[in-house]
Design brief:
This protein is an alpha+beta fold. It has three helices and six strands. Strand 2 and strand 3 form a beta hairpin. Helix 1 crosses helix 2. The mean pLDDT is about 95.
Length: about 140
């Protein structure tokens, strides 16, 4: 599917790869990068991906709630876990989303999660490309 209207463009410059740094064009993001599993001062791409996806997914849950005529609980949260792994020589990602929708019945929560996966751009981008599980907590 092709984008008809661009809403936002993120611009970053990364140097040094996984042991480098990344900075956004507006300088609101300025971080050190450290390869996963090392005790460096920086974060890693998997953590950034997990944070971005979970933030976007909460927004998608809010849109889903409006569509269903319900209110997204104020203290909703999503814990995202992104694994970097290998199969043979190939590097792969997989992810787990743990969604807390306090006060909502299980059926409504399941509907919100399904709708959110249909709306969230991160969910769309990963669908069919990586293994994803979503759990209501």
């Amino acid at each position: 599917m092709e984008i008809e209207k661009i809403l936002y463009t993120a611009k970053t410059r990364t140097t040094g790869g996984r042991a480098g740094s990344a900075k956004s064009s507006d300088e609101k993001l300025d971080i050190l990068l450290t390869p996963p599993g090392l005790n460096g001062a920086g974060t890693n791409p998997e953590q950034l991906f997990a944070a971005g996806w979970s933030a976007c997914y909460i927004g998608a849950l809010g849109l889903a709630a409006k569509k269903l005529g319900t209110v997204l609980p104020k203290d909703t949260y999503v814990d995202a876990e992104v694994d970097l792994g290998m199969t043979g020589e190939a590097y792969l990602l997989q992810a787990r989303l743990f969604v807390n929708l306090p006060g909502l019945d299980h059926s409504t929560a399941e509907q919100l999660i399904e709708l959110a996966h249909q709306t969230c751009p991160y969910s769309k981008a990963t669908r069919g490309n990586i293994i994803i599980s979503t759990t209501i907590i």
